[in-house]
Amino acid sequence: MKGPLFYAKILLFGEYGIIKDSKGLAIPFNAYRGALKTSSDLSNKSKLSNQNLSKFYNYLKNLNTDLVSFDLQQLKADINSGMYFDSSIPQGYGVGSSGALVASIYDKYAKNKITVLENLTREKLLNLKQIFSLMESFFHGKSSGLDPLNSYLSLPILINSKDNIEPAGIPSQKEGKGAVFLLDSEQIGETEPMVNIFMNKMKNEGFRKMISEEFAQTTDACIEDFLHGNVKSLFGNVKSLSKIVLKNFKPMIPDAFHKVWENGITTNDYYLKLCGSGGGGYILGFTEDFQKAQKSLKDYKLELVYRF
């Protein structure tokens, strides 16, 4: 048995802001993917995944909600037969490893599921997001449901606010010099502690003001520019965003990357921002000249996401 493929996701813009109801833009990233498989002879990694699915099954069994019901009997039988999630999506990297798993379980075991092929009204999208939020909370303590939604639909999603999300058309890639890329921090990031740091910071009035004004406005401007292909203006806004994040989100940036972050802003070779909650995993980079950025960051592993 091999299930359909579910892809990683990248939140291009909106990390932390979407917790506080500002805009976000997420895109599928098909370089990494996962699928449900079954084997009678489980190796270390697949054995661990099978055990995690068992815990997830117990969580779903006790989920008290009218939003969704699952074929729990079949799920339990498949787990007992050696089902696991075979995934190339790195965990703790901010690219939605648990989101892809949640999407695959919903796709295979949800009763009366909302399918990708039907007319996805805003109501259906919100419904899916709510279901995925409940399911993914098992992994993170609190989840927006956005990662699984992105993985399930395999479409770019524009988050206007908590109650207003829509599939977004993004400009097709060009063969230009500019790029969005991932920089590997080679450290695992834990979502929950980072979100806790953010929530504590939100108790400070100055920080709240910065989030609702400076951070949200700059993020919104970046999203507008990206969706409309205003590349020149986009890089100006991404530079501003990079500065805001360096100044206000230092604990979410691994220590070894504070100087690297600053260097991008000073030289204009590239601009960095958080990818997911930070604390490790990938850092997202934007550059007007990918070759120049590669030279500048020659000591690090970079992966191309999108070309301008």
Reported CATH architecture of the largest domain: 2-Layer Sandwich
Q: What would you call the structural class?
A: alpha+beta
Mean pLDDT, rounded to whole units? 92
The CATH topology of the largest domain comes to: Ribosomal Protein S5, domain 2
Give the CA-based shape.
globular
Give the percentage of residues in beta strands: 15-25%
Classified by CATH, the class of the largest domain is Alpha Beta
Radius of gyration: 19 Å
Secondary-structure element order, N to C: EEHHEHHHEEEHHHHEEHE
Low-confidence stretches: none
Q: What is the percent of helical residues?
A: 40-55%
Distance linking N and C termini: 39 Å
Total count of domains:
2
Give the biggest beta sheet.
5 strands, antiparallel
Sum up the structure in keywords.
Ribosomal Protein S5, domain 2, 308 residues, 9 strands, five-stranded antiparallel sheet
Structure description:
It contains 10 helices and 9 strands. It is of the alpha+beta class and 308 residues long. Strands 1, 2, 3, 4 and 5 form a 5-stranded antiparallel sheet that branches. A 4-stranded antiparallel sheet has the order 7-8-6-9.
